[in-house]
């Protein structure tokens, strides 16, 4: 066990050393830095998607088409590049205030496209084209149910993963502290759940937390991780507001704080279970061996992804 923990810690440290320069470059440098960051996040998105798509029954050509299709999320709505209200983020070196982040996040995901004049282009185009691809590959599946399950997973991930990383890119531009807390909450929840389960697991509640999806998780570990996550959301997301330090202030409204404290730790736990369920369906242990001791990108960023999306929705309240 000690060797496994040491291996995980070492590989996590190496991963951090690799990606940290991209985070800093994206936040601190001028237009070139923002473009480098944008490309970095797109590449990360494509790699994470490939790790999932390679476990489907689709051929290499179909997988390649799907990877290109995911770019729709990154470039539409095109307001992020052509709107006078949002394209300045590529030239911004001082970061964004939280109110401006809220406006840009909404505009870069949900408004009518500046060129096509269509709302939510990605949510229309991707499901339709994926269905066409699966229709042409229907003979590869044992039955219709198997194909539909895989279609739902693939369509969801083609939207979910690029949206998550696009949100992360916007947080990265805004403030490195905001980016850090998106990673901190899942790490705190996951670590406290692991050690809480190891020390107290099944001592009070004999039933497993999620026996079919993640048999090793215990109710004691989940409860401890939720409580610590609840406290940390207050400390990391709202304490700056009370201390009147704008640079570390995320939630500025009481309703946001209350919803965040209740929901965010839960999302961290659910994010882990959601990607574990997909692995169960594909009958795999990890999405890849990219990060020794951790697996693939979404093995490591599973909880972070749902936390980032949940935090963004709360921010729009």
TrEMBL record:
Record's keyword terms, sorted: Cell membrane, Lipid biosynthesis, Lipid metabolism, Membrane, Nucleotidyltransferase, Phospholipid biosynthesis, Phospholipid metabolism, Transferase, Transmembrane, Transmembrane helix
Record GO terms (molecular function): phosphatidate cytidylyltransferase activity
GO cellular component annotations of the record: plasma membrane
GO biological process: CDP-diacylglycerol biosynthetic process
UniProt EC number: 2.7.7.41
Broad class of the protein's primary localization: membrane
First-level EC class: transferase
Ranges annotated as spanning the membrane: 12-29, 35-53, 60-77, 114-136, 148-171, 177-197, 218-237, 257-278
Compartments where located: Cell membrane
Organism domain of life: Bacteria
Reactions catalysed: a 1,2-diacyl-sn-glycero-3-phosphate + CTP + H(+) = a CDP-1,2-diacyl-sn-glycerol + diphosphate
UniProt topology in membrane: Multi-pass membrane protein
Pathway linked to the protein: Phospholipid metabolism; CDP-diacylglycerol biosynthesis; CDP-diacylglycerol from sn-glycerol 3-phosphate: step 3/3; Lipid metabolism
InterPro entries: PC_trans (IPR000374)
UniProt family annotation: Belongs to the CDS family.
Protein name per UniProt: Phosphatidate cytidylyltransferase
